[in-house]
Amino acid sequence: MAGLAAAFGSGAMTNSIEEFEVADVILATGTNTTENHPVIASRIKRAVKSGKTKLIVVDPRKIDLVKYAAIWLRQRPGTDVAVFNGMMRYIIKENLHAKEYVETRTENFEALQACLEKYTPEYVEKISGVPASDLIKAARMYAEAPKGSIAYCMGITQHTTGADNVKTIANLAMLCGNVGIEGGGVNPLRGQNNVQGACDMGCLPNVYTGYQQVANADARAKFAKAWGRELSDKPGLTIMEMMEGAHKGEIKAMFIMGENPMVSDPDLDHVGASLKKLDLLVVQDIFLTETAQLADVVLPAASFAEKDGTFSNTERRVQMVRKAVNPPGLAKPDWQILAEMSTACGYPQSYNSAEEIFTEIATLTPSYAGITYQRIKNVGIQWPCPNAEHQGTKFLHKDSFSRGKGLFHAIGFIEPAELPDEEYPFCLTTGRVLYHYHTGTMSRRSKGLVQRYPESLVEINEVDANKLNVLDGDMLMLNSRRGTVSAKAWITDRVAPGVVFMNFHFDEALVNKITNPALDPVGKIPEYKVCAVSVQRAG
Amino acid sequence: MANELKVTIDGMEFSAQPGQTILEVARANGVFIPTLCHLQGTTNVGACRVCVVEVENARSLVASCAMPVSDGMVVKTDTPKVKSAQRMVVELLWASGDHNCLTCEKNGDCTLQDLVYHFEIEKPRFPMTSPGVLQDDTNEMIFRDLNKCILCGRCVRACNEVQVNEILDFAQRGSKAKVGPAFGMNYIDSDCYFCGECADVCPTGAITFKAARFAGRPWETRKVATTCTYCGVGCQISLHTHKGKVVKVSGKELHRQPNFGSLCVKGRFGFEFIHDPSRLTKPLIRREKGGALEEASWDEAYSFSGKKYQEVIKSGSSAVAGLASARCTNEENYLFQKFIRAGAGTNNVDHCARL
Ligand code: SF4
Ligand code: SF4
Ligand code: SF4
Question: With 60 as the cut, is the pLDDT of residue B1 above it?
Answer without folding.
Answer: no
